[in-house]
Amino acid sequence: MKMYGFWRSLATYRVRVALALKGLEADLVSIDLLKGKQHTDEYRKVNPQNVVPALVVDDGPPLFQSVAIMEYLDETHPQPPLLPRDPRGRARVRGLSLIVAADGHPLIVPRIRSYLENEMHQDEAARNKWLAHWTRKALEALEQHLSGERETGKFSHGDVPTMADICLAGQVIGAQTYFGVDTKDFPTVMRIYGECQKIGAFDRSHPLKQPDAPKNPAH
Ligand SMILES: N[C@@H](CCC(=O)N[C@@H](CS)C(=O)NCC(=O)O)C(=O)O
Fold first, then answer.
1. Cα atoms found within 13 Å of the Cα of residue 84, Cβ hemisphere only
2. Ligand 1 mean position to 149 CA, how many Å?
3. Of 65, 93, 107, 211, which is most buried with the most CB atoms under 10 A?
4. pLDDT per residue over 88-133, tens digit each?
5. How far, in Å, is the centroid of ligand 1 from the Cα of 52?
6. What's the rounded mean pLDDT across residues 43-48?
7. Is this structure's pTM higher than 0.70?
8. Distance, CA of 148 to CA of 1 (rounded, Å)
9. Buried b (16+ CB within 10 A) or exposed e, 163-190
10. DSSP annotation of 70
């Protein structure tokens, strides 16, 4: 397999953790989002949306969208499962995952940030306020679910990691590493993040541990 991704990308992180949990490897093609390399004609042929990740699994077109890729990996490599067996549990794990992947994360990606800067003429302080606000809103929603629902266990859903934990961990990394969001108001989220970090697949997938990450990243 070949993954087009970037060290800093939280959507890439999600697929990286899923691959690692399943003991799979993919060669990395680093697309430098900080240099706008997602906009090249060459990369548009890989992913017409000009975003990472994209995963090449065969001679067909690359897979796209991190949640769809994680589900593909889960269907083709069922062990260990990233989703519970029961439909209701699957709905909950998908719901928790989408709080991050469908609602929180899309508001903080480079194309939104550059639109705020170049088209809406928002200064850095305003942009940082935006990023922190939407990052916090997703964490708040996760915290409400996870602290109040009996399905929560050692991890977001029971005692083994699922796709919900992969999304949660990426959200926490964004909050802590990129946007300086104080996470003390989210104790359940942070407890679960701590459990994730004890697992090698999560730990070694951290953005700052990737081969294309700068030695002293200024983010
Ligand atoms: N919903 C997509 C999000 C993909 C996405 O926005 N990726 C970001 C990096 S995390 C990106 O490549 N952004 C490029 C840009 O915004 O210009 C997924 O989960 O795969």
1. 21
2. 30
3. 93
4. 999 999 999 999 999 999 999 999 999 999 999 999 999 999 999 9
5. 5
6. 98
7. yes
8. 39
9. bbbbbbbbbbbbbebbbebebeebebbb
10. H
